[in-house]
Structure formats: structure tokens, C-alpha cells
Amino acid sequence: MAGFLLRPLRAGDAVGERLAAAEWSLVAEDGDGTVAGWASLRSWTEDDGVHLFLTHGHVRAADRRRGLGGMLLDETEVAAARLSEQRRLGGTVMLGGNADDGQHDRAALLASRGYARIFTMIWMRRDASAVPLRDLPQGIAVRNATVDDAGDLWRLAQRAWAGRPFVTLPPEDRLRDWLRRSDRSSFLVATSGERIAGFVAVHGDEIEDVAVDPDFQRRGLASALLTRALVALGGPARLRTEAHDPAGARTLYERLGFRVATRHHRYRKRLR
Ligand SMILES: CC(C)(COP(=O)(O)OP(=O)(O)OC[C@H]1O[C@@H](n2cnc3c(N)ncnc32)[C@H](O)[C@@H]1OP(=O)(O)O)[C@@H](O)C(=O)NCCC(=O)NCCS
């Protein structure tokens, strides 16, 4: 497109850290040498075997509606196809894009290139109002997590999230690192004898994760863990989950007083 030069990212470009950390990126420069937009790619393989190339891009407000976003997205798709071939990726390879509520330009661009909205992540918030503690199911005790719980927690997560699309669980050593770095006074583990039945992890005002082993679900354990976490927090709380409620988590959070604050839509199309 006339007026813009597409080139690789250079040290000193006025772009965020996220772009610098991307696997692939491209910068659009206007006639003055000012960065007018950029695009990037990150990729990973989800637990169901789908390879995802997540595109991300930005065009500064003054340069919108001139076709630059479309041009950047087209270049990004070409780069994803090249990387997928270089890496000889088998199975399903998808392109992804994100648009928040209110990002109408971004959503329209993705739709114009054949992406479909496939699910929505929501941030939910709860005010500081008191929450009554829910009883623990019979035979269940609660303690703080230790770094040595990493293996059991990893296995529990595998079982709890099994079969869910769009999920990439961290490997065990990353979970161990997470435990090491966490404030373990707000990382609660529920036990039934020697066995870990569930956990809840809190960081600041964010409920980072909650999971219950399938053998212990629908007995009020997540509710008991979450109410303990909320009482310990003693203030407003927030968390992120899937809007379409594949595991009942959204229902659980709503029953504890969480309400949807923002919506973040996920778009995809097949690369091959
Ligand atoms: C979501 C999860 C933590 C719930 O744990 P749990 O101990 O079974 O939850 P509770 O027994 O406290 O459920 C409380 C309420 O939440 C709702 N709920 C929980 N699981 C549900 C399900 N599968 N379907 C529909 N509603 C559900 C119900 O309203 C339930 O009350 P009820 O049993 O009286 O109907 C558990 O299913 C899980 O670990 N899932 C996989 C991991 C996950 O998705 N974590 C959430 C990350 S955002």
C-alpha cells in the first residue's frame, strides 16, 4: 500500500514488550519513519493437538481505515503458513485472532478474512461484600500448598481439564516454578487422606485457578475452597473464565457473587 514501508522490528522501535517477545513480527513505517502499525505471531500446540498461530496487530488511530490492518494481517498469515511448513507441523493448524468488546474494527477485519468467533473469555469481578463460608465436604481437609505438591497438582489438572478444547496446560516443571514463586499462604490444597482433591490459587486480588478432581466434583468442594479464599482476601476479587461455561465454573462464580466485567472474543480459521 502506498505510503507505508513494511520492515522487521528494530531495537528502539516504539512498540510494546509483547511485540519484542513474539516469534515473528513486522512493523509498518510511514513516510516520516514513524511506526504506524505492527503485527506479530506467537504459536503453541494445544492439548488436543491443534497448532495455533495467534496473530496480533495494531494500527495507530490516525492510520485506520486505510487498509493497513488488512495488509498486516495478510502478511501475518503468509508468515504463519511459512513457519508451519518449515516446522513440518502435522494435524490441524489454525490461525487465531482476538478482539475485545468494543474493538469493532478488529472484529470486522477478522470476519472479512474468514475468521469465525469461536469462544469468549470473560473477566468477572466480585465486590468486597462478605461471603459466608461453605462447609467442606465430609472427609476433606484444607492446607497450604507446598512446592512438593507440583506433581499431584499437575496430574489433577490433567484429569480436571481432560478433553476441553482450546486448552494448553503448563508442563509439570512450569507448575513447580509457579508454586515456587507463589504466595503459598493463599494457595490452598484440599486433601482426602493422602490424595489431593482440589486446589485454589490466589495472586493479589485475582483467583488465578481453581480445580477439583473429577472424583470429588459436585460436592461443594470448589465452593468451599473459593469462599475460604475470598474470606482470606477480604476485598474485591477478579478472575477469568470461559463465557460458554464448559465446566460449570461460570455458574459456580455467579453463585458466589461474581459478575461479568469484560468480554474478550477469540476468532479462528483453519490455516490447513
Ligand atoms: C469448575 C469446578 C472447579 C467445579 O468444582 P466442584 O467442586 O464440582 O464445584 P461445586 O461442587 O462447588 O459446585 C457449585 C455449583 O457450581 C455449579 N457447577 C459446578 N460444576 C458444574 C457443572 N459441571 N455443570 C453445571 N454447573 C456446575 C453448580 O451450580 C454447583 O452447584 P450444585 O452442585 O448444587 O448444582 C470443577 O468442575 C473443575 O475443576 N473443572 C475443571 C477445571 C476448571 O474448569 N476450573 C475453572 C477454571 S476458570
TrEMBL record:
Q: Which InterPro entries match?
A: Acyl_CoA_acyltransferase, Bact_Acetyltransf, GNAT_dom
Does the keyword Endoplasmic reticulum belong to this entry? no
Q: Which domain of life is it from?
A: Bacteria
Please name the Pfam families in this protein's record: Acetyltransf_7
UniProt KW Transferase keyword: yes
Catalytic class of the enzyme:
transferase
Record GO terms (molecular function) = acyltransferase activity
Query: Per its UniProt record, what CDD domains does this chain match?
Result: NAT_SF (cd04301)
Q: Which SUPFAM superfamilies match?
A: Acyl-CoA N-acyltransferases (Nat)
EC annotation from Swiss-Prot or TrEMBL:
2.3.1.-
Instruction: Give the N-acetyltransferase domain ranges.
Output: 140-272
Supply the alphabetized keyword list.
Acyltransferase, Transferase
List the PANTHER family hit by this protein, alphabetically: AMINOALKYLPHOSPHONATE N-ACETYLTRANSFERASE-RELATED-RELATED
**Protein name from the UniProt record:** GNAT family N-acetyltransferase
